[in-house]
């Protein structure tokens, strides 16, 4: 099993959710986050004063999937979240050692 973590632009969430549903994803966790990458945020002007917005609002989508689905999930996220502009986000894939469904006690891939 793998955990796919995607940091995306907030307005792309619905498109990503729909694309993931098309490849068979039934559940996910979504968190509102803030951060910055190589660009280090962006410069804004407020009432004539320039300042730097260090942390840009983003959305983090977490999905745990069987190893066989990782490629389809990454492709779906990449295509649906892409705008072609700076700040489109990142996708990370990390191994998951165990999963347990609390209600039923199912373990491993049965729990996801």
Automatic annotation (TrEMBL):
GO MF annotations, alphabetized: ATP binding; enzyme regulator activity
One BP term from GO: regulation of nitrogen utilization
Signal peptide residues on this chain, from the entry's feature table: none
Residues with PTM O-UMP-tyrosine: 51
SMART domains according to UniProt: P-II
The keyword Protein transport belongs to this UniProt entry's keyword annotation: no
InterPro entries recorded: N-reg_PII, N-reg_PII-like_a/b, N-reg_PII/ATP_PRibTrfase_C, N-reg_PII_CS, N-reg_PII_urydylation_site
GO cellular component, one term: cytosol
Highest rank taxon of the organism: Bacteria
Keywords: Nucleotide-binding, Phosphoprotein, Transcription, Transcription regulation
Family membership: Belongs to the P(II) protein family.
Assembly: Homotrimer.
Protein name (record): Nitrogen regulatory protein P-II 1
Organism: Sorangium cellulosum So0157-2
């Amino acid at each position: 099993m793998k955990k796919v973590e995607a940091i995306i632009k907030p307005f792309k969430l619905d498109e990503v959710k729909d694309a993931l549903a098309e490849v068979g994803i039934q559940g996910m966790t979504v968190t509102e986050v803030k951060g910055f990458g190589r660009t280090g945020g962006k410069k804004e002007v407020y009432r004539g004063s320039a300042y730097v917005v260090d942390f840009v609002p983003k959305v983090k989508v977490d999905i745990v999937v069987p190893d066989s689905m990782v490629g389809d999930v990454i492709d779906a996220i990449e295509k649906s979240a892409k705008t072609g502009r700076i700040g489109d986000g990142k996708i990370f894939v990390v191994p998951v050692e165990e999963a347990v469904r609390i209600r039923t006690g199912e373990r491993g891939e049965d729990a996801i």
